[in-house]
Request: fold
Amino acid sequence: MPELPEVETIVNRLRADLIGRKIEAADLLWERTLASPKPAHFKKNVIGQSISAVKRRGKYIVLPLSLDTLLIHLRMSGDILIRRESEPIHKHDRLVLHFDNEHYLAFSNMRKFGRVWLTPTPEDVLGKLGPEPLDDAFRAEMLYEKLQGHKRQIKPLLLDQHFIAGMGNIYTDEALHLADLHPLTKSDLIKEKQAQILWKSIRKVLREGIARNGTSIDWIYRGGDFQNYLQVYGRKNKPCFKCGSPIKKTTVGQRGTHFCPQCQKE
DNA sequence: ACGAGCGCCTGTCGGC
DNA sequence: TGCCGACAGGCGCTCG
Reply:
């Protein structure tokens, strides 16, 4: 499910509910949810710690605790719910953290791809991530230089979290369409001017996604309405809003890929 | 270094 | 109605 705008929305909604909460108990309902440490160590260490902040890095939810840091990656089908203790857990809940205020956090994860880390050194997990695309430090010239450093298809490169952190399948298709770039364009062939347009496009689609509270397709992620503003994703055979040509769907890097064959020439 | 293929999972949808 | 494959907001691994 979630890409940068969805994770940002989730984090902003969770903040008020989580800051200052002390974790009093933990139920691990699907063992492989834990990337590290082992379940026994996790329970022993996490209980008693309080949440001091709620942040995001790329697609990771970052919860600094009293001693360690809790990292949550939602992958394809994850969500975080806060419920009253009087409400029962749900079918797809994989990890539950009980707080000191009659509420609990449920990590819901239908497809079981999501992962949780409890670590004193979060940089071990986050350190390899590329730059935050919405940070001031992420400059158009930097993107151009990085593109020159690879000879890769632009779409899989943008999806590579070591290159840029936070782009997923929807926002990548949208950004490439906005920038008039074919998804198979080799990164080193992108000119400085095109790189600048791509930089603007990436930031524009991410910012608009956040402003619309993310993209809600099916019912995995609720509450956003950016799905009503998508230009190419999910619009196979529908007319391009720029030129009227039917949007094409192909596969690039094993991912469904939507683009306008007229606006986005290879 | 790059790209393809596959595994990890559950659920939904379309075709027959 | 039922079965069966394709597909889904992600990512890590192997192989050539």
